[in-house]
Amino acid sequence: MLPSQGVDAALAGVLGLLVGSFLNVVVYRTPVMMYRQWLGEAVGNLMKVDGVPSLWSLVFGPKTNTPPALETAAGEAAKSIDALPPFSLARPASRCGHCGHQIRWYENVPVLSYLFLRGRCSACKASISPRYPLVELVTGALFALCAWRYGLSPTAALWAAFAALLVCQFLIDLDTQYLPDSLNYALLWLGLIGAAAGLTRVPLASAVWGAVFGYLGLWLVFHAYRLATGKEGMGYGDFKLLAALGAWLGADYLIAIVLVSSLVGAILGTVLLVVGKLAHKDVPISFGPFLAGAGLVCLVAGPDTVRQWIPFAFPLGALTS
Ligand SMILES: [Zn+2]
């Protein structure tokens, strides 16, 4: 071990703690921003704006109009949405979800503030979820690992971005059953760019085919399952996420990713059952957290180690390695 290796890892770990703090914001706010946008579009589509007919006539025929009561209600809703205070990743400043107390900078130091405040809001003493410091710690550890393995290099930065995006998708899907396109596409493009730039050591062709077959594979499973049972077991976000993972790890890893994701699913399902999160609701966990978890397992173990674990998942391994 080079003496600088530990220093690199420590620096990256501190950066990861700070990024983890930001990821908590991303995980909480991205779905809310998405919902606000969807509602705005929905009511906007019911209204006639500047003489342009509403979508109603395009759907129900050219001689129809949005029923007046509905159009009035949509107008009211649009006004209410416009009147909302700005909401983005940057604004407003973080507040206690319980009493609205604005979090001061020294109450927002990753992990340390949580310990210092003993997991409670300084104003109203409502308990703060241990998930926040946990996300910070995990992100810090993942960043440290990337720097430990690749030094402070573009490759380490790229894999750290991979880790950060997967942490977000894991939690957002767990919370909301959605995998935001904005994060899926960032992951997909970064994987392809990383391969094209020679940073991920996956040949570009393998990255492209990984994305193609990742998407197509789950798409086929989805429609076969839907035809056979009439139910929808996955969503399009899952196809995109597996496509992104295929771009990062290469087409030959797709079977391994799916196998590891079912293992992650079994473990996660057990954990959530024990914690009691699944006990009351009949909401199934979606596939996204398992896929994101599998991506993180491949990062932590290292793609080569995964190949050694489950060599049978690489039937064409001899062709590509
Ligand atoms: Zn409070």
UniProtKB/TrEMBL annotation:
Stretches assigned to coiled coil: none
Magnesium as UniProt keyword: no
Topology relative to the membrane: Multi-pass membrane protein
One Gene Ontology MF term: methyltransferase activity
UniProt-annotated location(s): Cell inner membrane; Cell membrane
Prepilin peptidase A24 N-terminal domain boundaries: 14-150
Superkingdom assignment: Bacteria
GO biological process, alphabetically ordered: methylation
Prepilin type IV endopeptidase peptidase domain segment(s): 161-269
Catalytic activity annotation: Typically cleaves a -Gly-|-Phe- bond to release an N-terminal, basic peptide of 5-8 residues from type IV prepilin, and then N-methylates the new N-terminal amino group, the methyl donor being S-adenosyl-L-methionine
One protein family per Pfam: Peptidase_A24
Alphabetic keyword roster: Cell inner membrane, Cell membrane, Hydrolase, Membrane, Methyltransferase, Multifunctional enzyme, Protease, Transferase, Transmembrane, Transmembrane helix
Listed transmembrane segments: 6-28, 156-172, 184-202, 208-229, 241-273, 285-302
EC number of the protein: 2.1.1.-, 3.4.23.43
Role of this protein: Plays an essential role in type IV pili and type II pseudopili formation by proteolytically removing the leader sequence from substrate proteins and subsequently monomethylating the alpha-amino group of the newly exposed N-terminal phenylalanine.
Entry's family note: Belongs to the peptidase A24 family.
Protein name: Prepilin leader peptidase/N-methyltransferase
Organism: Variovorax soli
